[in-house]
From TrEMBL, chain A:
It holds the Pfam family STAS_2. InterPro entries: MEDS_domain, MlaB-like_STAS, STAS_dom, STAS_dom_sf. Residues 201-277 form the STAS domain. This is STAS domain-containing protein. Gene3D superfamilies: STAS domain (3.30.750.24).
Automatic annotation (TrEMBL), chain B:
GO terms for molecular function: kinase activity. PANTHER family: ANTI-SIGMA-F FACTOR RSBW (PTHR35526:SF3), ANTI-SIGMA-F FACTOR RSBW-RELATED (PTHR35526). Residues 5-153 form the MEDS domain. Residues 201-308 form the Histidine kinase/HSP90-like ATPase domain. Pfam families: HATPase_c_2 (PF13581), MEDS (PF14417). Gene3D superfamilies: Histidine kinase-like ATPase, C-terminal domain. This is Sensor histidine kinase. Keywords: Kinase, Serine/threonine-protein kinase, Transferase. InterPro entries: Anti-sigma-factor_SerPK, HATPase_C_sf, HATPase_dom, MEDS_domain. Coiled coil: none annotated.
């Protein structure tokens, strides 16, 4: 399907049937967690298909104040066991997937919700015998249904380490969108990309006044996860003084944000900090052994 | 404890310089006032020898000696250093004994920025409890001697302290430093009006100019930083359109930005050090710290900022 668009997970909207392949569990937690939390914050229903009813939604419990039980109790979050979409043989059944989705859509208005977000990790189904064939059929059907829906969107995720590349490409092509982390930014001058092991942000290119907002948004999104946020500056080619101030002030201005730990400063940045470092509003924190 | 005392003294020869300096320093030691000494290396050695001879066992831990090259080359840092020293001794006065480095006599921009710095001391440190004594030889270049007389409210000689009748207001001196900004830019300048508010295209042009001039990678980064800060400042605080002019001047690169806004407070641009956590002046202070040749000219219809980045020696 040639109509696939790339969509930041935070910008997904009804009608989007997005595919997301991840390389690391923390990448899955970041992106899926962001998608789920966005929906919960907007008062939408979230339906997550998991191994069983007690399974955790990736990334949700890692965010402060986002206990899964709280949303399960109110019914805003529904965790559907995998067995609901499996036939008698225990295999993924595309028809059951559509039936379950149909039931959820049917009860949506009755339960008082305007929109629903579906999400599932389909890796387990794709790696089974005839998994590719079944998934292509199921994802194509879902694409037709979700793509024309004014109230539903769906994020399908696949573990790239588990799934064969060819099969992944085929199921990917059955989606009308490719989901990426919101922290991803590329305007040809600055490229921001999340890193997942360690958790952080890789900065490549130039940061200036036209790009401060993108940096702030990326840091805010990634710092919702617990622990320090490592900002890798290896590819930094320019940074203005306001951006340096932004990095120094960020933890103080955003109370719940992570501590920023900067690493691999280029030589020019070391020089700049030597000149202005003691005039910044707060100390920059450097990764041990690689700082200035 | 009153505010600033800013004195100038002309010395006839080495002996006169040493006698004046040692008198100032021994008075400071008697009053237990810390002193920052910013003299040329030979003068510094002569003063230290005389101090040792006069009072060999007296502790001089409150005297800090620095090289005199910093004032014209690093005026933003020098101003910050003076203020920081005063802030570190809130219960009493501090002193500075200084002289311009020798290059001020031979280099137009160093002379200009030294004169601007001395005027800025009067304007920006008026409330700081510091006594500054600046020295210049009778053999100083006429322009250097004139700069001394324009910027020091009091003069000191063997008969004591007296008011300086040639003293000029700090604002007048500052504006006089930048009169040539009212002239057209050279014909060879690349003049353009960037679209939008993105500084990246200006940086790309500045980088090409830096390559043509042969600036080192470190000096190129200084240029990119200062032109970006000035452009950002014009975008955030000026009025469009912003006209940029870039040209090479020997081994240096000059960048001039003109916007149509009026900026009445532009005097002594970049010489007010930011004091964390209040860092609103960080950008322009950093420009001056990275590049001492920062000039400005304002009128009701235009604000012109010019920065010249020369190779680091």
């Amino acid at each position: 399907m040639s109509r696939t668009v790339t969509r930041a997970v935070s910008a997904m909207r009804p009608g989007d049937h997005a595919c997301f392949s991840f390389d690391h569990p923390s990448e899955q937690s970041s992106v899926v967690g962001g998608y789920v939390v966005n929906g919960l914050d907007r008062g939408e229903r979230v339906v997550y298909l998991a191994e069983d009813r007690d399974s955790r939604v990736p990334g949700l419990n890692l965010r402060p104040g986002r206990e899964q039980e709280r949303y399960l109790d109110t019914g805003q979050l529904r965790v559907i066991p995998r067995s609901s979409v499996c036939g008698a043989s225990g295999e993924y059944d595309p028809d059951l997937v559509m039936a379950v989705a149909g039931e959820e859509l049917h009860r949506l208005a009755k339960d008082g919700y305007d929109a629903v977000r579906f999400s599932a990790d389909w890796s387990w189904a794709l790696i089974r015998a005839r998994g590719e064939e079944r998934l292509v059929r199921g994802e194509s059907a879902a694409d037709g249904a979700v793509g024309s829906s004014p109230v539903a969107m769906m994020l399908c995720h696949y573990d790239a380490a588990l799934c064969p590349r060819d099969a992944l490409d085929k199921v990917h092509s059955c989606h009308n969108a490719t989901a990426v982390s919101h922290a991803r930014f590329d305007d040809g001058v600055l490229r921001l990309a999340p890193t997942f092991d360690p958790h952080g942000l890789r900065v490549e290119g130039e940061i200036d006044v036209a790009r401060h907002a993108a940096v702030t948004e990326a840091l805010l999104e990634l710092s919702a996860m617990p622990g320090d946020l490592l900002v890798d500056l290896t590819g930094l080619r320019f940074i203005d003084l306001r951006a340096l101030r932004l990095l120094a002030e960020f933890p103080g201005l955003h109370r719940d944000a992570a501590r920023l730990v900067l690493s691999n400063p280029p030589d020019f940045l070391v020089e700049t900090i030597r000149t202005v470092g003691d005039r910044l509003p707060a100390d920059l924190v450097w990764a041990e052994g690689r700082g200035t | 404890m009153t505010g600033l005392r800013h004195l100038g003294a002309f010395y006839r020869d080495d002996e006169d310089l040493v006698r004046t300096s040692v008198g100032f320093l021994t008075d400071a030691m008697a009053a237990d006032e810390p002193v920052l000494v910013v003299l040329r290396p030979r003068h510094q050695r002569l003063v230290q020898e005389r101090l040792t001879a006069l009072a060999p066992f007296r502790t001089r831990s409150r005297l800090v000696f620095r090289g005199a090259g910093g004032i014209s080359a690093r005026p933003a840092q020098a101003m910050a250093g003076y203020r920081d020293m005063a802030a570190a001794h809130p219960s009493g006065r501090v002193r500075v004994l200084a002289e311009p480095d020798r290059r001020v006599d031979h280099c137009a921009w160093r002379l200009r920025e030294w004169i601007r710095f001395e005027a800025a001391v009067n304007a920006l440190m008026d409330d700081v409890p510091v006594t500054l004594l600046c020295l210049a030889g009778h053999d100083a270049a006429p322009a250097t001697a004139q700069g001394m007389r324009w910027t020091h409210p009091g003069l000191l000689d063997s008969s004591g302290e007296s008011p300086n009748r040639d003293y000029r207001s700090a604002a007048l001196v500052d504006s006089g430093c930048d009169l040539q900004l009212g002239l057209p830019v050279p014909d060879r300048a690349e003049v353009f009006v960037p679209e939008g508010t993105d500084p990246a295209p200006l940086r790309a042009r500045a980088l090409r100019a830096a390559e043509r001039a042969g600036l080192s990678p470190a000096d190129r980064m200084r240029l990119l930083t200062v032109v970006t800060e000035l452009f950002t400042n014009a975008v955030l605080h000026g009025e469009p359109p912003i006209t940029c002019a870039l040209w090479t001047q020997g081994p240096s690169v000059v960048c001039q930005l003109t916007d149509t806004g009026d900026w009445p407070d532009a005097a002594f641009l970049g010489l007010t050090p930011p004091n964390p956590p209040h860092t609103s002046t960080l950008g322009l202070w950093a420009v001056r710290a990275l590049c001492p040749q920062l000039q400005s000219h304002t009128s009701p219809t235009a604000t012109i900022l010019r920065v010249t980045v020369e190779p680091t020696t």
